[in-house]
Amino acid sequence: MSILIGTSIMFILSGSLNIALREILINVAYSLMIGVGLFANGYIFNSIENHWLSWTKHPVRSLIIAFSITTIYSSIIIWGVNYLWFIVIMKLSLSAFKAFVINIIISEYFVLYVITLFMFARAFFNEWRTLIISEQQLKQHALELQYKVLSNQVNPHFLFNSLNTLSSLINIDTERAQSYVNKLSSFYRDLLSYRGKDIISLKDEILFVNQYIALQKERFGNNIEVKINIDNSELYQVIPMTIQMLVENAIKHNQISKDNPLTINIQTIDKHIKITNNIKPYNKPIDGEKLGLSNLKERYKYLSNSPFELIKTEEQFIVNVPLLTFD
Question: What is the mean pLDDT of each run of 10 residues along the chain (327 residues)?
């Protein structure tokens, strides 16, 4: 490509096709020297693109940074190679250099910027296409997550446990039974209201979690304890039902009894929600699909630069969820 561009420029600037073979070969050598240097722009561009550029989020800033770095580097190559070739090797005087080489340098800048603009445009459209694909995947993950949460709450086990708890309360205390029905109804109403929402306030999520915990307390009594220590809940957002799903996950996969109480701690630490529970698994572990947790992780990866972490030790299961902030 360097030889093709250099030869084409030589014929255009000379205005004639009658050029000696020796001149063509000299031009080929010159084209290779400057071409190799300029085409290294591709490696430099890829490096700065990965670290400093975001064409869809900050297009103007990205264009200025990329254009500036490309121009500075290319100017060093263009002027350095031309000085080395024409003054050092070909022994041209400075005045002859200015008169003879200026048109060559202008043409090299022209070709440079044509190729550079093509690279910028391609980078923009590649990132834009990736963003569109990511958004579609995120929507799919959101639908899958909502389906999982809803299906978990209407599956036969949940309904059986809820109705069993209600039946026990009716025999013991009708007022508590009525209160339980109201809590269950309120829980489902809020659950359905979150469908279609990408994010909700942390404050609303905690209110929803408290409803879910109240239902579970009727079933497990003092055998389950959930400690919530949240600061500035109105300043942050989360993906709907994030904390509720993690609490549900802890209840689902651990024995809960007087001898094996379950303790769940929910707290804010350094712009993260940390959910911790002790581990007392069943002798025969419950098979559970990891779709919900993996989808949550992928969605937070898209929405936040902070990691969504799952940590399992011999005694605890810990989840660190990044808090979201949107204006």
Answer: 72 69 76 79 75 74 83 88 82 77 80 81 76 66 57 58 79 83 85 78 93 90 93 89 89 90 94 93 63 76 86 93 83
Looking at 74, 99, 133, the residue that finishes a domain is 133
CB atoms within 10 A of CB 298: 18
Provide the residue range defining the domain that includes 306.
Answer: 135-322
Alpha-carbon distance of 302 to 323, in angstroms, equals 13
Helix (H) or strand (E) holding 243: helix 242-252
102 and 153 within one domain: no
State the Cα–Cα distance between residues 220 and 209, nearest whole angstrom: 16
SS3 65: helix
As given in the structure block, the two tokens for residue 29 are 């050598």
Is residue 215 a contact partner of residue 184, using CB atoms and an 8 Å limit? yes
Which of 92, 116, 133 finishes a domain? 133
Q: Are residues 160 and 196 in the same domain?
A: yes
- Looking at residue 281, what is its pLDDT? 84
Q: How far apart are CA 153 and CA 166, in angstroms?
A: 16
Domain CATH number, residue 233: 3.30.565
E strands of 133-261, at which residues?
200-201, 224-229, 237-238
Task: Output Rg (C-alpha) for the chain, integer angstroms.
Answer: 33
The answer to whether the beta carbons of residues 120 and 63 sit under 8 Å apart is: yes
* Measured distance CA(25)–CA(255) in Å, rounded: 82
Same domain, 140 and 94: no
Amino acid at 236: Y
- 93 vs 267: CA distance, rounded Å: 75
CA distances from 28 to 9, 33, 290 (A): 11, 9, 60
Neighbours of 181 (CB within 10 A): 14
